[in-house]
Amino acid sequence: MRTYTTYNDTQLVLSFQDGDVTALSTLIERYKDKIYSSIFFLVKNKSLAEDIFQDTFIRVIDTLRSRRYNEEGKVLPWIMRIAHNLCVDHFRKIKRMPVITSDQSDIRDIFESTGVNNYENAEKEIIRQETNATLTDMLYRLPETQRDVIILRHFADLSFKEIARITNCSINTALGRMRYGLLNLRKMMEENSVSL
Fold this sequence. Notes:
The chain is mostly helical. The chain has two domains: 99 residues, Rna Polymerase Sigma Factor, Chain: A, CATH 1.10.1740; 77 residues, Arc Repressor Mutant, subunit A (Orthogonal Bundle). Helices cover 67% and strands 0% of the residues. The chain is built from eight helices and no strands. It is elongated, with a radius of gyration of 18 Å.
């Protein structure tokens, strides 16, 4: 059994197309957190995000097996475009926007990168959790186009060129949506006296 950790995405795709499913497992493991987080913040529902995540990889597998994949070296943006389109399709089917829930237990802290400091006291931890819940709520009050760009940039770490392609807009439009989204977040933070 080969180990694929040193393979690039294109090599993994080719290995999978040659019949080695371990190569696909490596590819999924490489990007699962970014893809799932982006889906989750678009649909705001854990079980729905898991379903869309699975549907995304079913489409990826079908496309790779039929050898219709032709975007060499751009695997993550391609998978993110599939995931984004599945999210859009879901909301078209139910003809509504994502609902904001008050259950914060499933939401990852969107502005936290390292986790809780072991020396942090309980009061600071409570304040941090409340601040992150407030910021998450503010993110979902943004227009969908601005929220999508922020999520794809922050969680999937995609370039603006890749974001533009996924959201079917120009790079300048994606940049503008990011700019206005951040301005709107800052304005809401000032109105709610939230500081980071």
